[in-house]
Structures are given as C-alpha cells and as structure tokens.
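User:
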Amino acid sequence: MARKMKFHHKLLTKGREIAIIFAVLLVISTFLTWGKSDIASVTGFSGDGRYVIGIGLFAFIILFFKKIPKIMAYLLAFFMLALAGYYFVYRGMVIGGNIWVSALFLIDFLVIIVFLLRRQAIFVSLVLGINALALGLIDFHVMAITVENLVGGEIGMGLYLALISSCGIVLGTIVEGYQEQNPKLRKKLFFFDQTD
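Assistant: Predicted structure:
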C-alpha cells in the first residue's frame, strides 16, 4: 500500500495535477457553445476545437515522458509538417485565408517540430499549451466580430472555458518544469521512460 501511495505522489505531481484538470476542461469546452445567436449556436468541435482537443491531450500526455521516444518524435514531426502545409498552402492560398495568419501558423508548427526532434517533452508540452491559447484567442476574435452582427449574438461559455483551460495547461507545464529542475523535487517525479 505504501508503494502505491509513493507511486501515486510521483505520478500526480502538482504540475501534472494542474495539467490533468485543465486538459479535461479543455476537452469539455470544445463540446460547449462557442458562439450563439437567437436562431443558431456553434460548438467548438465544429471548428478549431478539433485541433484544441488534440493539443490539450497531447500536451498533457507527454508530461509523463522525460524524452519523447524517437519513433514517436519522428512520426509527430511528420504529422505536424503535414498540418503546417495544410494551414499554409490550402487554407492560406487555395481557399483564400489570411496569408499572414497562415504564415504565422507555419512558423509556429516549425518551432514545434524543432522541439519534437530535440525530444524534450516539457518544452513541447509548453509550446502546445501556448498554441491552444493562441487558437482560442484567434477564435475569440473571429467570434466577437461574427456575433456582433447577429441578433442576440454572443460568445458562448465554451470559448471562455477553452481560453482559461489553455492558460491552465501552460501553468501546469511551467510548474512541472520547475519540479524537474528542482533537485529535491526531482526525486519525487515519475516518468514512463525512466530506467531506474
């Protein structure tokens, strides 16, 4: 029983507890209303919320790894490169999206890819949390403009929850990063890829 409790405290450190709570809230937020009017409403899942779910869950999961496994890092880097190409080429050029926003996403994805190839999980998690926040802010701006012209239009609580949850994931990652650097707290940490 003592061993289980010890493992439990190593697994659920303060940073990870914060990340768990806000990752779950982030997933929930995408199914809630992000924008509504008197005649219609939109959930996050029908837009960028699909990416936000993936970002939140992935940012949380890799907190349990010291270094991302090599094959996983390469596969994720390839996936992120494909997604970057989709945002920049298809959404930015083909369907006439804002080229500067697409270029910003391209640079952002390239930064994530660099961190993935370095395999430092804590930095990847932090960058992903920031990305979820960035997507939420962009959607908030777009939604604010959209609902302004609608009868009874307003931003839904799901979008507010997504923004708060993204900040929580970033906070949890920073706390976990501090715990990884602190010699006293480091002994209490558990990683799935540790050898001792």
